[in-house]
């Protein structure tokens, strides 16, 4: 499957696990935002997939964050948290001010800078970030994530740098999602 097909398949599988209105494809961090964190003069990423609740208001920030926290008990989130810890040598960073519950980036480029950009956006914007790629590119994605984990281990990076990210081959992530809603 290509990137667009896997994106649609993952979106469909997520919509079977979460209310459909919380699953967004090509989600701009400016969507429905009233907090102006990402004003027109700032770079504003567009996530390949995002799952809410969303934290896009200043006046309701506490309620938005409480909604995200409540979804943290969802079976998928428990699995992802365990996978983040497994891939990060036992570490899991609790993003205390995420833009969304899940930030998912599909990495079909082989350029390491694109992959690192996707990892960065998923980590900064999601309570949990997920990076998904095709089997052919998956080793490169894993090596880049392992690089960040190694920098943390040898104290050359902050303890929280990318420590909320899990990486999956596309078919493996899709299988995980479909197995949960059977």
Percent helix, as a range, is: 40-55%
Q: What is the number of domains?
A: 1
Low-confidence stretches: none
The radius of gyration computed from the alpha-carbon positions, rounded to a whole number of angstroms, is 15 Å
Shape: globular
Secondary-structure element pattern, one letter each: HEEHHEHEHEH
Mean pLDDT: 92
Task: Give me some keywords for this one.
single chain; 182 residues; alpha/beta; five-stranded mixed beta sheet; 19% strand; globular
Describe the structure concisely for a colleague.
Helices cover 46% and strands 19% of the residues. Strand 4, helix 5 and strand 5 form a beta-alpha-beta unit. Helix 1 runs parallel beside helix 6.
Describe this structure in words.
This protein is of the alpha/beta class and 182 residues long. It has one domain (3-34, 45-180). The protein has six helices and five strands. A five-stranded mixed beta sheet has the order 1-2-3-4-5, with helices on both faces. Helix 1 (3-17) runs parallel beside helix 6 (170-180) and helix 4 (112-125) crosses helix 5. The chain is globular and about 40 Å long.
């Amino acid at each position: 499957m290509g990137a667009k097909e896997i994106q649609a398949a993952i979106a469909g599988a997520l919509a079977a696990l979460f209310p459909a209105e919380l699953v967004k494809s090509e989600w701009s961090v400016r969507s429905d935002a009233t907090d102006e964190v990402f004003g027109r003069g700032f770079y504003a990423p567009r996530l390949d997939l995002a799952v809410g609740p969303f934290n896009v208001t200043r006046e309701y920030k506490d309620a938005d964050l409480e909604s995200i926290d409540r979804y943290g008990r969802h079976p998928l989130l428990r699995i992802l948290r365990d996978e983040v810890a497994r891939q990060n040598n036992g570490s899991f960073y609790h993003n205390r001010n995420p833009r969304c519950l899940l930030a998912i980036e599909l990495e079909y480029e082989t350029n390491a800078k694109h992959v690192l950009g996707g990892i960065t956006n998923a980590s900064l914007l999601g309570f949990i970030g997920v990076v998904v790629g095709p089997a052919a590119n998956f080793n490169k994605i894993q090596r880049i994530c392992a690089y960040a984990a190694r920098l943390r281990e040898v104290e050359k990076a902050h303890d929280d740098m990318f420590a909320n990210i899990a990486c999956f081959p596309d078919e493996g992530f899709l299988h995980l999602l479909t197995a949960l809603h059977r």
